[in-house]
Amino acid sequence: MDTIAGTKPTLTWAVHISVALLVVLWLFPTVGLFVSSFRTADQISGSGWWSSMFPQERQNPAIRLSGEELQEGELFVISGNVFDGSEAAVSLWGTSSRAPQAFQPGETSELSRDRTVTLEVNGDFRFTATESQEGKRLPRVFTTATTPPDFTLENYDKMLFDESNIEGMARAFFNTLTVTIPATIIPIVVAAFAAYALAWMEFPGRALLIAMVVGLLVVPLQLALIPLLKLHLNIGIGKGYLGVWLAHTGFGLPLAVYLLRNYMVGLPKDIIENAKVDGATDFLIFTRIILPLSFPALASFAIFQFLWTWNDLLVAKVFLIDATGETTVMTNQIVELLGTRGGNWEILATAAFVSIAIPLIVFFAMQRYLVRGLLAGSVK
Amino acid sequence: MKNVLFASAAVLALGAGTATAEKLTVFGPWLGPDQDAVEAVLADFAAQYEHDVSYVGSDSFEQQILVDAEAGSAPNIAVFPQPGLATDMASRGFLIPLKDGTADWIRENYAAGQSWVDLGTYAGADGNDQLYGFFYKVDVKSLVWYSPENFEDADYEVPTTMEELKALNDQIVADGGTPWCIGLGSGGATGWPATDWVEDMMLRTQSPADYDAWVDNELKFTDAKVVGAIEEFGAFARNDAYVAGGAGAVASTDFRDSPKGLFSSPPQCYMHRQASFIPAFFPEGTVVGEDADFFYFPAYESKDLGKPVLGAGTVWTITNDSQAAHDLIEYLQDPGAHEIWMARKGFLTPHKGVNPEAFGDPTLRKMNDILLNATTFRFDGSDLMPGGVGAGSFWTGMVDYAGGKSATDVAAEVQASWDALK
To answer: Does the pTM exceed 0.90?
Structure first.
């Protein structure tokens, strides 16, 4: 007894620590994505998100001087701040790409044609020339500066409020809901009936049917895309919501039937037999007894199916999105935001967090059923 | 989008009662600013011809057009970024031939007209060659981008011959710098920037006839001429001193990130060879013509091959027959259709009848001059090869090559994959 009592706390600690580690490991990419969604494209390609949260000393790309020209006696002077007022501290600077760290703050760099530049620690500059610089290219300064963390809401603004984008985004959002909700409900309804029949009704070939459903679980949906689309077009459904609901239903059913059947089979036999003795029909048993008892399994499958239809791009592209552009979904809209050559990572990061909102609400609303339902399906 | 909506609303209002108004769907590869531009062009078409036009862009155009065509739900007009795929589609009977006389029009009005006709002519399902594709919007690929001020700071001259360029490479290294930024990463298409290099090198070391033979596989990949062109690329990309991050970084750097090294401090590199679209990936606020500029990727003075230019373009095809689709092809022959996009960004055209003043900025005009001054113009070879090679083994082969595999091995593998397709 002693040994058991003694080892238990350490074991618990080991479990806790490994769980914490796993959680951190699991969350790590998400945190990175979240931080990146507040950074501009240049910042993302310039430095890692982990270094963006602390003040950083680094060599900045060249900044071209700009400002209004004033005449002071013989000299034409332009002054201003290279950082546009953000708090950065220059440690070294230069005016040539060959020697970007040639000067200390406060020193003056002599350029060709009697021009000079002086740069202060806070980024204030003073540029002088003996002739007017109007219409000419002003010099660049290279700074090595410590810059405070700099985050922006620009990406979210572009994603959610940008004029050119908002119309498409709103339409995509409602289209996605139009796809997702029926595509979640239809397979659950069908699968619940099927699962009851497979679990509690005696008929010849039942075992074979169950085996077939399990077999269908391993068929990849990519295999069926084109034949199914051809079928849809032949029977006149075409590309549209009905087609995509049917496709999602078909692709979701094997797992749904399997999950629900396994759960229902585990329900106490006595209740059902008692009901039968009392004269209840199969339909009554199903609606009054099985359905309420199966709620955790139904909910857990609903979460699965919802998340997966919400995140789906492939099925939507094949069965829904046509050349009219009216039927787009969130995932497709996000892909389009990436641009013709797909380089806008900052938009991708932001889009991930915008589109995650609805699935998160669904998940937190129903998550207490998820684990229960899953376990119940597997352990008799 | 809005423009199109307004325009189509206007068209609906105007065209109410006329029997000619048709709904026309256009499917292409453009998104973002390019999409705005193409929609502006289509809105003008809609206004002139009183059709109701909608454009949809997709980043996975090549896959989706196949799915749609297979399933019989193709748009009216499909705009292919690669003629290779259009050839495949034509041979399977998915494309509708353009009207008679279009070929003659192209011959007369496009610079190097016959080559554009050839590029748009494919064998149909019945095996007969017909004109299926109309080229509209062209890219020039033989460009080297650089920062003029970095060149001034270091006293470098823009090279006008390949010999000078190679001397400049060594001079930059001697001065402690790195001449090139090269990145091949591009998701599923990783490797394509290297195929452009090899094509450019092929044009600079071999005759145009050899280039055409190579594209048709009459000249095998394993031929010493092709292997030589691959090694010419290797002389740049596989030299640790020549490439920012070392030769090992070439295959793993994303092509969209690689030009940013031109603008870092200190500069990671001085030159970047890429097509005319690349300024879209320069850091925000970069002014082309001031902060960044380009020069023609020079040819060997000693080889007497003139000034070859490598380019690409988008080919407009009819995938679902309708009068409006033929009207659109006709509209694209109007100089006005070219000038609308010229006034925006990233558009070059071989149309001789357009007003060069219409270009939105002087750099575009400079690029068009490179196009017009070319003694040889050749289309991106990998786009013309069969998809399995040009968008498959050639890409992956070049990644292997950048990773250290020998040129002969890579060439043999690409050739084997081509033989397997025959």
So the answer is: no
**Tens digit of pLDDT for each residue in B12-61?**
444 443 446 788 999 998 887 788 889 999 999 999 988 889 888 887 78
Task: Note which residues in 86-125 of chain B have CB less than 8 A from chain A.
Answer: none
Which residues on chain A are in Cβ contact (under 8 Å) with B32?
A: 336-337, 339-340
Q: Which of B24, B265, B277, B281 to mutate to test the interface with A (most CBs of A within 10 A)?
A: B265
**Structural domains of chain B ordered from first start:** 2-140+311-379 (3.40.190.10), 143-309+393-421 (3.40.190.10)
Residues A176, A218, single domain; the answer is yes
CB-CB under 8 Å, B277 with A341: yes
Is the Cβ–Cβ distance between B183 and A343 less than 8 Å? no
Q: Which domain holds residue A110?
A: 56-147
**CB pairs A-B closer than 8 Å:** 126
pLDDT value of position A55 = 83
Tell me the per-residue pLDDT of B262-283, one tens digit each, with 9 for 90 and over. 998 889 999 999 998 888 788 8
Same domain, A307 and A248: yes
Indicate if A100 and A205 belong to the same structural domain.
no
DSSP B235-291: HHHT-TTTBTT-GGGTTTSBTTTGGGGGGSSS-S-SEEE--TTGGGGSPTTPPBTTT
With CA atoms as reference, the chain B residue closest to A112 would be B153
Residue of A297, A309, A270 lying closest to A366 (CA atoms): A297
Could you tell me the two tokens for B176?
């402690």
Is the peptide bond prior to A105 cis by the omega test (within 30 degrees of 0)?
no
Pairing of strands A140-147, B77-80: unpaired
Shared-domain flag, residues A37 and A93: no
One domain for residues A99 and A85: yes
Interval B118-177: pLDDT, tens: 888 998 888 889 999 999 998 899 999 999 999 998 999 999 999 999 999 999 999 999
**Given CB atoms, is B218 within the 8 Å cutoff of chain A?**
no
A78's enclosing H/E stretch is: strand A75-81
